[in-house]
Design a protein that fits this description.
With 49 residues, the protein is mostly helical. It has a domain of 29 residues. 45% of the residues lie in helices and 0% in strands. The chain is built from two helices and no strands. The chain is flat. The chain starts with 9 loop residues before the first helix and ends in a 13-residue tail after the last helix. The model has no long low-confidence stretch (mean pLDDT 80).
Length: 49
């Protein structure tokens, strides 16, 4: 598996007061779920386009 978090700048995330839960979801969790092949059955609640 490719390191999908290799482009993530953890130092910037730590020091950015605006980097909150929603940012973590978008930057880290969504790419991870996408790589694992996760698909949302209910398209109205879809996180991954």
């Amino acid at each position: 598996m490719t390191n999908i978090l290799s482009d993530v700048d953890f130092k910037t995330m730590k020091n950015d007061p605006n980097f909150k839960e929603d940012s973590v979801r978008e930057v880290m969790i969504v790419p991870l779920l996408k790589q694992l092949g996760y698909q949302q059955e209910n398209k109205d609640q879809m996180l991954i386009p």
